[in-house]
Amino acid sequence: MIIQYADLLTIGAGGGAYPAAFRLARAGRSVVMVDPKGVMSGNCLYEGCVPSKAIRETAEIYQSQRRFAERGLPGTITVDFAKIMAHKDSIQSRRYQQHAADLAATPNIQMIQGEARFITPHEVAVDTADGERRLRCAQVIIASGSDVFVPPVPGSEFCLTSHDLYKPDPILKTLPERMIVIGGGYIGLETATFFAALGTRVTLLQRGGQLLNGMDPGMVAVLTPLLDPSIHILTGIDVTAVEVTPEGGRRVHYTRGEEDDTIDGDVVLMAVGRRPVIPAGAAEIGITVTRKGVAVGADLQTAHPHIYACGDVNGRVPLFHAAVRQSMVAAHNILGGNIPMDYADFRHIPTTIFTLPAAAYVGITPALAEAQGIPLQIGRYDFEEDSRAQILERMEGGIQLFFAADSLRLLGGWVVGIDAGALIGQIGTAAAHGLTAYDLARFADQHPMSAEGIGKAARSLF
């Protein structure tokens, strides 16, 4: 058997893998990326943030047009769902071509399509369509990502998942009249708002009492009443079965308290979470694997200093941009001879829930501060008084900034409403660099832009 040598092997070719792969290739190292799809880029492009936001942005445009029409302004837009999905597919295709061109233009990198499994800490077998290949690796980055979790509910095979909905050439090609969403996390809630904006009657079933479980209750309490009131949200739900109706639709059986009930829809989206994809053989070679994923610290090293785990597979912050940063940390530490010289800052990773409207947060929020006994000073700014929000007739929500009570150093913040996804990055940068309320108050941000609300929130303390 021929064994190929690689300075670096990445298991996966998404955000946790390719930034490090390119960095080491530029340093003259030989790099092999192994991925089941055989293309560069992971779940974000295939079935996650990029395709879902392609749908979201068109839904938001349609929603905005209706908002202006209600105020007597001219113009009409109709929904062509097939064209929306074709637009989504075209964005994915364009980005895959872009990634392929980057890969082709970079020496020292090879892509292999297949499934990787550990034989020893330095030897990996890859099962390909042409048989098994063996690679001996000086360094390994595990970046195998995560996959949709489907609970063992009878009839779950009759449900769609985010994979089915957002992958290239998706299963759903016509706009359903009725959609049932099982799960009130960010994937389920985002999708519910997209389809409601396009005209689908949506029912969302949430097992717990709070939507977006695990996120700051104060932020969720501001967001929830701003969601489309046509979305029928039921909490405290335990789904017991899904079946096909005689008409070809779907029927969901559930319990709520002591009551059993059913609800019918045209499609059901199962959106109850994702779980890490652990390469075969990882535990057998001594890598610690927990329920959340491969155990790593801020240096991204596993129990073997030459093996790193980046992105969703470690379960620390399962977001694409977090994976990219982690990949670069691994690259720097590999170039440093596996002696940590760079560390991932997991606390200051901005998170946006791309609902309509959106919400975003970063750093320490009130619930976390209370749990850790950290006293806060809170700066506030309501979009009701914001000029850009008034221009766009989107005056709901606002900005809250959380400062250390003694030093007024920014610890975190959240935004609900207009431009939340853009503003949270600016807040996160300020928090990561230790800026204070005085620093934010002194910065003359642009008018009329929603970002000026950050300085105004800081000045609300003085």
UniProtKB/TrEMBL annotation:
Under the heading NCBIfam families, the entry gives: PRK06292.2-1
Protein name, per record: Dihydrolipoyl dehydrogenase
> Which top-rank group of organisms is this from?
Bacteria
Recite the UniProt keywords alphabetically.
FAD, Flavoprotein, NAD, Nucleotide-binding, Oxidoreductase
Residues the record marks as active site: H447 (proton acceptor)
Which EC main class describes this enzyme? Answer: oxidoreductase
Q: Which family does it belong to?
A: Belongs to the class-I pyridine nucleotide-disulfide oxidoreductase family.
Question: GO molecular-function annotation terms?
Answer: dihydrolipoyl dehydrogenase (NADH) activity; nucleotide binding
Binding positions (NAD(+)): G183, G184, G185, Y186, I187, G188, L189, E190, G273
Q: Which Pfam families match?
A: Pyr_redox_2, Pyr_redox_dim
Which InterPro entries does UniProt cross-reference here? FAD/NAD-bd_sf, FAD/NAD-binding_dom, FAD/NAD-linked_Rdtase_dimer_sf, Pyr_nuc-diS_OxRdtase, Pyr_nucl-diS_OxRdtase_dimer
